[in-house]
Design goal:
By secondary structure, this protein is an all-alpha fold. It has helices at about 40-45, 45-55, 60-75, 80-90, 95-110, 120-145, 155-165, 170-185, 190-200, 205-215, 225-235, 240-250, 270-285, 290-305, 310-320, 330-350, and strands at about 25, 30-35, 35. The chain is globular and about 70 Å long. The structure holds acetyl coenzyme *A (ACO) and oxaloacetate ion.
């Protein structure tokens, strides 16, 4: 059954806030990155091909890809001053705050040129270093060890898994990471990307734009929903418990994280892909509860509210099956979405106009100033 389209108001819903040649979302073109169908990309490409496509504008040739991957590998190295900051940040900090601070710190240590002539190199640097930032901080505080950023893995997903678990990941898990990173890489004028574009529109540097975007992604109405979804799923030990629990939450008018979307009306096209990967990894690790629990939540949400899972919902269990701590789910989103944010920064700079809308004033008028002694 189709969900009934209800006109959304407020929050700039439905407002076309600019032009872009990077991605189509809910515009009748399907979900495409630079004209390529997301399903083709998720099935056939590696994340590095897709991040090249987004940040440089075209799919790479084999030799372009090899060079790009080498650059990404070199970009993993952590400057000593950044290591000091990561060691100093508290163990109980939110990992998204670590990502945000790591990005901002790198901007102090390796600033972008005022004329942006090195923007391409800065983008590659950020894409390469984000997993190192998170996992250096993680291992230092959890295991008292400093990680070596050298690795046998030549992809961002493989490197992340190898450094997290300290062992070679399986090909299946590496493929799951590619798919997930591809699906998360870009989504037009979502809240965090829009913020990155606003940053670029003031002619600020790329670190400022991406630091701001990370802060915006952290919220549970946006990227933080994948962590919130896992917390929800983990509340239940069986399908029976989940059924009772979700009905109870709906009765109490609770928001169920990982469901609904600002633009999509009856389904998020990315869900079908990530759901299949969640099912595959559940089989791989022999977990027979989490996937059926997720499916019953999906069914109840549709039956009762006509709400569908967005990308965050089954991404949560997909990551969980790979032994990734829940608090690192949104940082993985950062590792991927940096490609999209960066593409938008470059596009905004290419045809810039300061983004500065108006507000409608609804406050009081004509008030007489009252001296401080008389207030
Ligand atoms: C990768 C991503 O960032 S995808 C988005 C991730 N975020 C989430 O999963 C958070 C949960 N979802 C939501 O909060 C919303 O669906 C959003 C923020 C994604 C979209 O919000 P909006 O476009 O503003 O829709 P809005 O919040 O007005 O929802 C419309 C109605 O559906 C309800 N609704 C929407 N999502 C949910 C949900 N997940 N659980 C319960 N009810 C919901 C709202 O309460 C509202 O009901 P009402 O009309 O009776 O007040
Ligand atoms: O488009 C949105 O509003 C949120 C989203 O799905 C994304 O950023 O991937």
């Amino acid at each position: 059954m189709e969900a009934k389209e209800k006109k959304k108001t407020g929050g700039l819903a439905g407002v076309v806030a600019g032009r872009s040649a990077i991605c189509t979302v809910g515009t009748g073109h399907g979900l495409n990155y630079r004209g390529y169908d997301i399903y083709d990309l998720a099935k056939n490409a590696t994340f590095e091909e897709v991040s090249y496509l987004l940040t440089k504008g075209a799919l790479p040739t084999q030799s372009e890809l090899e060079i790009y991957k080498k650059e990404l590998i070199q970009a993993r190295a952590l400057p000593d001053a950044l290591k000091v900051v990561l060691r100093t940040l508290p163990k109980n900090a939110h990992p998204m705050d670590i990502m945000r601070t790591g990005c901002s710190t790198l901007g102090c240590l390796e600033p972008e040129a005022d004329n942006f002539s090195d923007q391409g190199a800065k983008i590659t640097r950020l894409m390469g270093i984000f997993p190192s930032i998170l996992l250096y901080w993680h291992h230092y505080h959890v295991n008292g060890k400093e990680i070596d950023t050298n690795s046998s893995q030549d992809t961002i997903g493989g490197y992340f898994l190898e450094k997290l678990h300290n062992k070679q990941p399986s090909e299946l898990w590496i493929k799951a990471m590619h798919v997930s990173l591809i699906l998360y890489a870009e989504h037009e004028f979502n809240a965090s990307t829009f913020v990155a574009r606003i940053g670029a529109s003031t002619l600020s540097d790329i670190y400022s734009a991406i630091t701001a975007a990370i802060g915006v992604l952290r919220g549970p109405l946006h990227g933080g929903a994948n962590e919130a979804a896992m917390e929800l799923i983990s509340e239940y030990k069986s399908v029976h418990e989940a059924t009772r629990g979700i009905y109870e939450k709906l009765e109490n008018k609770a928001k169920i994280m990982g469901f609904g979307h600002r633009v999509y009306v009856s389904n998020d096209p990315r869900n079908i892909v990530i759901k299949e990967w969640s099912r595959k990894l559940a089989d791989d690790v022999g977990n027979s509860t989490i996937f059926p629990i997720s499916e019953i939540i999906e069914k109840i949400m549709w039956d009762e509210k006509k709400l569908f899972p967005n990308l965050d919902f089954y991404s949560a269990s997909t990551y969980h099956f790979m032994g990734i701590p829940t608090a690192y789910f949104t940082p993985i989103f950062v590792m991927s979405r940096t490609a999209g944010w960066a593409a938008h920064v470059v596009e905004q700079r290419g045809d810039n106009k300061l983004i500065r809308p108006n507000s409608e004033y609804i406050g009081p008028e004509n008030r007489a100033y009252v001296d401080i002694k008389n207030r």
